[in-house]
Amino acid sequence: MAKMAVVGAGLVGSLWARMLGNRGHEVVVYERRPDPRLGPLHGGRSINLALSDRGWKALEVAGVSDLVREIALPIRGRRMHAVDGTRTFQPYGLDGQCIYSVSRAGLNRILVEAAEAMPNVRFEFDHRCQGYTKHDDGVTLHLEHQGQPLDVEVDRIFGTDGAFSAVRGRMMRNDRFDFEQRYLPHGYKEVPMLPGADGSFQMEEDGLHIWPRGTFMLMALPNPDKTFTCTLFGPYEGEDGLNHLTTDDAVQAFFEKHFPDVIPLLPNLLKDWNTHPVSSLVMTRCFPWNDGNRVALMGDSAHAIVPFYGQGMNSGMEDCTVLDALLEEDDDWDRIMAQYTTVRKPAGDAILELALQNYIEMRDLTGDPRFLQQKKLEARLQKKHPERWLPLYSQVTFSHTPYHEALANGRQQQRAMESVMADAEKWNHFEDDRWMEAALSALDQLQSATT
Amino acid sequence: MAKMAVVGAGLVGSLWARMLGNRGHEVVVYERRPDPRLGPLHGGRSINLALSDRGWKALEVAGVSDLVREIALPIRGRRMHAVDGTRTFQPYGLDGQCIYSVSRAGLNRILVEAAEAMPNVRFEFDHRCQGYTKHDDGVTLHLEHQGQPLDVEVDRIFGTDGAFSAVRGRMMRNDRFDFEQRYLPHGYKEVPMLPGADGSFQMEEDGLHIWPRGTFMLMALPNPDKTFTCTLFGPYEGEDGLNHLTTDDAVQAFFEKHFPDVIPLLPNLLKDWNTHPVSSLVMTRCFPWNDGNRVALMGDSAHAIVPFYGQGMNSGMEDCTVLDALLEEDDDWDRIMAQYTTVRKPAGDAILELALQNYIEMRDLTGDPRFLQQKKLEARLQKKHPERWLPLYSQVTFSHTPYHEALANGRQQQRAMESVMADAEKWNHFEDDRWMEAALSALDQLQSATT
After folding, report:
1. Inter-chain contact A182–B181, Cβ cutoff 8 Å?
2. Residues A264-276: what's their mean pLDDT?
């Protein structure tokens, strides 16, 4: 079988190494950081992640889903906190449909060990990628190890080295390679919420808690150790901006004004605030995702997105599922690599767009009564006509519909809902269900107009 | 005075070195290529360039415009060639308003020598920039010379090293630095048109010749040695795409079909076609253009654009004029550098947009009778009411109005012209001039609505 180099031993890289290993290839994973099992996580990366159906499918393909289930905490929906203390629950999907909170470090350990357990997969940590050179018989991967250059000859390279990918950095020098890195004018800071005095969770552990406040929001996602990871997302600039939350007084006043119900749950807020960094939010896009038949980008190296749809990891894992399926169908690497870009590039662009939209939804619309009403109506519509109405969130989170198709469907659904919600006198949504047929036929019309 | 490093000895770098030299700074220009005066130009760069008012102003500020006038060939307007041989002349501006064709190599030589003639300016060729490190007292510029690393300590660095700038490559690693590189799906190939048998120009030398053909076009710009540089711009893909013009038969048939009047003027077409490369067309955008008070990007390193407005060099030279004026007004480098980004970033975005639009105008609209009629009407309007109507092309080419203001003005003018041209029965544009007042008042209304 072929010699494969995977650059980056993060979630996508180690998962992909396992899939390549399953296919019998000889795989070496080169990672610039030390072995993550030897110490704490490096860099300002989020502590926990939301795993949903696309991720689970990839884990199943790789044969590691059972191991991951042991560390996954089910999350049934959003739990919204208004300033006045009012709380609202909004389920993510139908009964039993959940997303799962997992620890990045725990998941990474499982994936590295599942790959490393194979006789044909090896990990080399402390190896920094410095680029590559394609030639007729293969590709030379240029590495640096302990300050010394090291070249290795392989058949293919898979760049899974994240938003600031060195593999992509080399591709950027290719003629006609498009690239964009764009930062949100917003950043974030994480602080932990410890268990209560009795050792248990301080809030419902089945929800992603959100304090929507217009231009900024607080979020909390539970961990199996009964803590929550709380994250404030907000603009750098402006009166309530992160750049101004730099003194104890300012932070205390900000939380008292906007998140009064959280203050008793965060006794160490000021200390934690001062010791945790503000992190930025970057998006990247590029094209193509392959360099001929020799190199491909997967995960954040191809499409880094903002975290608001919980799809960053899931979309990267879906890259693995899709590329693995192409390997199953074909053995011509020219076709496989070109097809990979063709299939996945529109999906990557779409989830980038969806994730941006969801930031506005989470921080602003989840505090809007009309938006919440629409979500309730859509949930009723889905329950009554599950075959005709799958809400956008469910398409993204609980289906394997390509993201760009989900995005297009979602836009049509939004227009269909607007058409029945616009005239409140005509449609008494909570008295009878006549509006449902109107919404469904509006959707049918929109769909038939585009196909 | 301060120690200044300029990275890149191209047109913008050598001009800026001269301006810094004029202000008494100690300047060293580091260029990765050999001295351009020792051999032919490197890389697939255009042979000649159009110099217009913004460029001339910068040359005047630097005190080198008289030297450049000696090598500049005036171009009065566009000379369009239809497939059937019909030819149309469209002046660029009022009588006496011209753009100027200059040789890149000749202009670069003048600028390097004008800078080098100063006792406080030095050039170091064969020095490749590898990045920089800011520190409290200045900034270390990391270079490579003859395979060896070389660090130099300076007060400021100016990155004038082009579309693939190494200085910007280092800035890209800064948190919250936005960057985009995007290629057109079109490329170009240059072929020379030699003088005729009598040693003179084969076409009128006062025009930029255009063969507009919808999705592609041929262009020819005269040189002082009686040659023209002919450039085919077109898509890579498709029936008439550059990717298919790879055999003598295909090239011959393509020129016979689309540019029959050129064939007798290009006896060496097939040989030249085969020996000249296809070059791609890249655009770059980034933000910010400065790294604190230590580093700034100028010219293509900050804003590489497509060549269709003839403003690539002119916009880079205008960066020099603007930054030089900031140096005249202020001596606080925090303010100077921040202000430079604030003032020039919107201008860079606008000229990128304008240059893209002009590609469509040149290759498609210049063959459209309605478009040509509008241009004639605008020229008449300008002649009669010069204080109230300055066509967009003139604002960009013959004024110093910031590009983003020109872009906004141009959009309003377009809407005003559409409002009077829409109703041909009401306005008999060629019988009387009543439409002029209507167009002017439509423009006034649009302008007052936005101010």
Report:
1. no
2. 96
Query: Are residues A346 and A198 part of one domain?
Result: no
Q: Three-state SS for A429?
A: coil
Shared-domain flag, residues B144 and B28: yes
Beta-carbon separation of A173 and B164 below 8 A:
yes
Q: How many domains does chain A have?
A: 3
Nearest to B175 among A176, A182, A280 (CB): A280
Q: What is the ipTM of this complex?
A: 0.90
* pLDDT beyond 70 at A45: no
Residues B15 and B143 in one domain: yes
Average pLDDT of chain A is 94
Domain that holds residue A425: 368-450
Residue ranges in chain B whose pLDDT is less than 50: none
> Taking CB atoms and an 8 Å limit, are B173 and A164 in contact across chains?
yes
pLDDT of residue B422: 85
Which domain CATH number covers B156? 3.50.50.60
**Same domain (yes/no): B176, B160:** yes
Q: Which of A239, A256, A280 is the last residue of a domain?
A: A280
Query: What pTM was estimated for this model as a whole?
Result: 0.92
Does residue B239 sit in the same domain as residue B313?
Answer: no
What token pair was written down for A29?
């994973």
**Does B96 fall in a domain?**
no
So what's the pLDDT on residue B362? 82
Q: At a CB cut-off of 8 Å and minimum separation 6, what does B57 contact?
A: B317, B318, B321, B400
* Cβ B181 vs Cβ B175: under 8 Å: no
Work out whether strand B279-287 and strand B228-235 pair parallel, antiparallel, or are unpaired.
unpaired
Residue B40 is predicted with a pLDDT of 65
Chain A residue numbers touching B280 (CB-CB < 8 A): 175-176
Shortest alpha-carbon distance between residue B179 and chain A (Å): 5
What residue type is assigned to position B32 of the chain? R
Interface residues of chain A, partner chain B, Cβ below 8 Å? 164, 172-173, 175-183, 280
**Which of B223, B258, B280 delimits the end of a domain?**
B280
Distance from CA of B180 to the nearest CA of A (A): 4
Distance from CA of A206 to the nearest CA of B (A): 34
A394-409: pLDDT as tens digits: 999 999 999 999 999 9
B188 forms beta bridges with: B233, B279
Residue B34, classed as helix, strand or coil, is: coil
Q: What is the pLDDT of residue B447?
A: 87
